[in-house]
Amino acid sequence: DGGITQSPKYLFRKEGQNVTLSCEQNLNHDAMYWYRQDPGQGLRLIYYSQIVNDFQKGDIAEGYSVSREKKESFPLTVTSAQKNPTAFYLCATRSWTSGNTGELFFGEGSRLTVL
Amino acid sequence: AQRVTQPEKLLSVFKGAPVELKCNYSYSGSPELFWYVQYSRQRLQLLLRHISRESIKGFTADLNKGETSFHLKKPFAQEEDSAMYYCALRGSSNTGKLIFGQGTTLQVKP
User: Rounded to an integer, what distance in angstroms lies between the CA atom of residue A80 and that of residue A85?
Assistant: First the structure.
C-alpha cells in the first residue's frame, strides 16, 4: 500500500546529532527527490537522484547528504551542519517510462524536531 | 531564474462561491505547470497539469503565457475542497524536478 514509505513519521533530535530519514519505494520509479516543507515557504528541493549511484544537489542542499545505492531507497541524512533542521521532509518519486505524465508521487512525510 | 509565486497564503470563501487560486511563474522557456493538493492528513497529490487541459473535481487551470499565470478556478466551491494547494513548474531540463510555490490554504466555510 502507498508505494512510498517514509520513516520515521516523527523524529526528535538533539542539537549536534546527525539523523537519517528513510525513503523506500516499490513503484519501480527511477527518480527520487527530497523536499523540505516549511509554512509559508512551500516545498524546497534538497537533493534528487535520477538513477542509481547518482544524485544532484537541489536548491537547499547545505547540511544534508544522500545516497542512492539501490533503486528502491534514497535515505536523507540531516547533519549537524544544517542550521535550521526542524521541518517536515517529503520524499517523492517519478517514473521515466514513456507515457508518464511527469507526475511526482509523494510519501507521507517525516517531521523532524530539533530540541 | 525559475520561480513560482502564489500571492495568497489563505483564501477563505463560502460554500457555493467561486474560487480562484492565483499562480504566477517566472521561466524563460516553455514550462510545464501543475497544481498539487494536500488534504488534511493525506499525501500531497497531483490535481491537474496544464498539458492535459482537463477538469478535475470541478477545477480548471489555463496557462496564460502572456501573463505568465496558471490560476486555478472552480465555479462553486465545496467544503471538501478545503486543503493546501501548491502550484508547481517544471522547466525543460530532463531532471524531472518541480519548483513549487509557497502554497495557498483554501478554506471553504459552510
Answer: 9
Residue matched to cell numbers 517529503: A90
pLDDT tens, chain B, 110 aa long? 789 999 999 999 999 999 999 999 998 888 889 999 999 999 999 999 887 778 889 999 989 989 999 999 999 999 999 999 999 998 766 677 899 999 999 999 99
Spatial separation of the C-alpha atoms in residues B56 and B94, rounded to whole Å:
27
Residue of B nearest to A31 (CA): B96
A58 closest CA partner among A30, A89, A27, A80: A89
Judged by a CB distance cut-off of 8 A, whether residue B86 touches chain A is yes
**Shortest CA distance to A75 belongs to which of A5, A2, A3, A1?**
A5
d(CA B14, CA A42): 25
- Cβ contacts of B79 within 8 Å, gap of 6 or more: B15, B108, B109, B110
Contact present, A79 and A62 (Cβ < 8 Å): no
C-alpha cell at B57: 473535481
Q: Dig out the grid coordinates for A106 from the structure.
A: 509523494
- Comparing alpha-carbon positions, the chain B residue that sits nearest to A103 is B46
